[in-house]
Write a structure and sequence with these properties.
heterodimer, A: 412 residues, alpha/beta, Rossmann fold, 6-stranded mixed beta sheet, 4-stranded parallel beta sheet, B: 92 residues, alpha+beta, Ubiquitin-like (UB roll), 5-stranded mixed beta sheet, two-stranded antiparallel ribbon, 3 helices, 9 strands, globular
Chain lengths: 412, 92
C-alpha cells in the first residue's frame, strides 16, 4: 500500500520528502502530495472500489497514507440526493445535493480531511493534534482525536456561536478561545506550530489533510454512475475544497474511471466575505483580503490562501462565482429544508443561494446536471435562523383548542 | 530600539536559528532589503522584484500590510513585524 512519491511545491516545483512540512523553504509556495498515478492505474478499478466498505477509505490508493487507516473508519460516503422538487423550483432539470450534513461523526465534510490528517499524524508519530478552526474543524478534530487517543489543542475565534463551542467542549479537548477573527487565530497558530511539535492538521499536516477533501469529489462521480456532472457549486472559505474537488475529477479522468470530464466549477461565497468571488468576477487571480462580516462564519476567511488556485480552477473549467447576502442565505437554508428535508448550516445556504443566482444569470443552464456541495449540518448554526422561521400553534390540552388551531391552519 | 522582526521556521536557517531579529525603520520593503544584507538570501525568499511573494503574509503590529500600504507600509522603531507563510489555510 502507499502510492505517494513525495511532496512538491506548487509554485516552483522543488521536491521534498514525506514530512510534516507545508511550505516550500525557497518560495513559501504550498506543498502538494505527488502520487504514482501509473502504479495506481494498474491496481485501482471500479469493481475494487465498489467492493469495499462505504466510507471514504474506499479510495485509499488516492489518499496520502502509507499503511492502514487509523481514523475516520466510518466517515464519508454520504448520500447524493436527487432533488426533484428543488430542481423544478430553481430552474434546472437534474439537481443533486451532496449531503455532507450527515457525515460521521461530527456532521460536516471536515470529518473527511480529519480522517486523513489524523491517520497521517499517527504515521508521523505525533501524540498531540491541533487546529485553528471556525467551528466544524474544531468539532471534528476534537471528536476523531478523542476516539484515536490524541491530546488535543483546539484554537477558535472567541466570537463563535455558543452551540459550536459546546459541540467542541463535549469531547473534552483543550479549547483555546482567541480574541480575534479566524485570520487572527490562524496567524497565531502558525506561530504556535513553529514552537511546539504538534500535528496542526491545517498547518504542518495540511498537504495530507487537504487531500481528504477529494473523497467528496470521488463519491459524486461514483454516485452519478461514474460520470462527471455538468456543473458543481462549491462553498469557498480558503478555496481548498473547490480545488480538491476539481483535482479529484481530473484524477478519475486520468485513471480512466470516468470517460469524460466537462464539469464547470462554481465558487459560492457570502457577500460579507467574498474575496475569491470578487477576484473571479473581476477576472483576476490576485486575492484582495477582506475583513469578514457575514452570518456564514464557517466561510469567513478574509485571507484565503488557496484563493489564487481556486480562481484558476474556475477559469480552467469554464465556471464562475457568485456571492449572496445574509438574507439570501437564510431564505436558501429554509428552502432546502422545506423542499428536500435537509437542514444545512449557513454555508449550505450560501451554496444554494449562489446556485439560484448562477442559474438566473445563465451561468448554469437548464439542461446542466448540477451538484450542490452541502458541507455541514444546520443544527450547528441554529442561531442563524432563529426568528426567521414560522411559529408553533400554541394550544390548550383539549380538542376544542386543537380544532381552533386546525381551522386557522386550514384557512391559511 | 529597532524594528522587531519575527522570522518563521522555514527562514530561521538563514538567521542562524534566531526567531526574532532586529531591522531598520523605513518601509516594509526597505526593511527586507536591509535584512538581506545582514542575512543573505532572506530577501529573495520573501520578495521578488520589490514585491512580496504571493504566499508570504507580512503583518505590522498584527495588521496585514495588504490592509495598509503593502510593501510601502511604514515601520518605525519599536514596531513588531511578523513574516508568516500563507498556509493555504482554511478551516470552515
Amino acid at each position: 500500500m502507499g502510492f505517494v512519491h513525495g511532496l512538491k511545491c506548487r509554485e516552483c516545483g522543488r521536491e521534498y520528502p514525506v514530512d510534516p512540512i507545508y511550505v516550500c523553504e525557497f518560495c513559501f509556495g504550498p506543498l502538494e502530495v505527488v502520487y504514482d498515478y501509473e502504479g495506481i492505474r494498474k491496481v485501482l478499478t471500479k469493481e475494487k472500489i465498489t467492493s469495499r466498505p462505504q466510507n471514504l477509505w474506499r479510495y485509499i490508493e488516492l489518499l496520502p497514507i502509507d499503511g492502514a487507516p487509523t481514523s475516520g473508519l466510518n466517515s464519508g460516503f454520504t448520500p447524493l440526493v436527487k432533488a426533484g422538487k428543488l430542481a423544478t423550483l430553481i430552474g434546472v432539470k437534474e439537481l443533486y445535493i451532496k449531503d455532507d450534513t450527515v457525515t460521521h461523526p461530527t456532521l460536516s465534510f471536515k470529518d473527511r480531511v480529519v480522517a486523513v490528517a489524523l491517520s497521517k499524524a499517527r504515521e508521523f508519530g505525533f501524540d498531540t493534534v491541533a487546529c485553528a478552526s471556525t467551528g466544524n474543524l474544531a468539532h471534528s478534530v476534537s471528536a476523531h482525536g478523542a476516539a484515536d487517543g490524541f491530546k488535543r489543542f483546539i484554537f477558535i475565534p472567541a466570537s463563535l456561536e455558543k452551540s459550536k463551542i459546546v459541540a467542541s467542549l463535549v469531547y473534552d479537548p483543550n479549547l483555546i478561545a482567541v480574541d480575534g477573527n479566524y485570520d487572527d487565530v490562524n496567524r497565531l497558530c502558525s506561530e504556535v506550530a513553529n514552537k511546539y511539535r504538534w500535528a496542526f492538521v491545517n498547518i504542518n499536516i495540511r498537504p495530507f489533510y487537504a487531500e481528504g477533501s477529494k473523497t467528496q469529489g470521488y463519491e459524486i462521480l461514483e454516485q452519478l454512475g461514474w460520470k462527471a456532472p455538468d456543473a458543481v457549486v462549491v462553498p469557498s472559505a480558503s478555496g481548498s475544497l473547490l480545488t480538491k474537488i476539481w483535482k479529484s475529477f481530473k484524477e478519475m479522468k486520468q485513471l480512466g474511471l470516468i470517460d469524460e470530464l466537462h464539469t464547470k466549477v462554481f465558487s459560492a461565497q457570502a457577500t460579507g466575505c467574498s474575496p475569491i468571488v470578487a477576484a473571479i468576477k473581476a477576472g483576476v487571480d490576485v486575492i484582495k483580503p477582506v475583513k469578514p462580516d457575514t452570518i456564514a462564519k464557517s466561510l469567513a476567511i478574509g485571507n484565503p490562501a488557496d484563493g489564487y488556485y481556486a480562481t484558476h480552477v474556475v477559469k480552467e473549467s469554464g465556471g464562475f462565482g457568485e456571492d449572496v447576502s445574509d438574507q439570501e442565505i437564510i431564505d436558501a437554508i429554509k428552502l432546502l429544508a422545506k423542499t428536500e428535508g435537509i437542514f444545512a448550516e449557513t454555508a449550505g445556504g450560501v451554496t444554494l443561494a449562489s446556485a439560484i443566482k448562477l442559474i438566473k444569470g445563465g451561468h448554469i443552464k437548464e439542461d446542466d446536471v448540477t451538484v450542490l456541495c452541502i458541507t455541514g449540518n444546520g443544527l450547528k448554526t441554529k442561531e442563524a435562523i432563529m426568528g426567521h422561521t414560522g411559529e408553533p400553534y400554541h394550544i390548550q390540552p383539549n380538542m376544542k383548542s386543537f380544532e381552533e388551531a386546525l381551522k386557522k391552519i386550514n384557512d391559511k | 530600539m529597532a524594528v522587531r522582526v519575527k522570522i518563521p521556521v522555514p527562514l530561521q536557517r538563514l538567521t542562524q536559528g534566531k526567531e526574532e531579529v532586529e531591522g531598520d525603520s523605513g518601509t516594509v520593503i526597505s526593511l527586507i532589503t536591509n535584512l538581506d544584507r545582514k542575512y543573505p538570501g532572506l530577501g529573495e525568499r520573501i520578495s521578488e522584484g520589490g514585491k512580496l511573494r504571493r504566499f508570504v503574509n507580512v503583518y505590522v503590529n498584527e495588521e496585514d500590510v495588504r490592509f495598509l500600504k503593502n510593501e510601502e507600509t511604514e515601520v518605525k522603531d519599536g514596531d513588531e513585524v511578523s513574516i508568516v507563510p500563507a498556509i493555504a489555510g482554511g478551516a470552515s
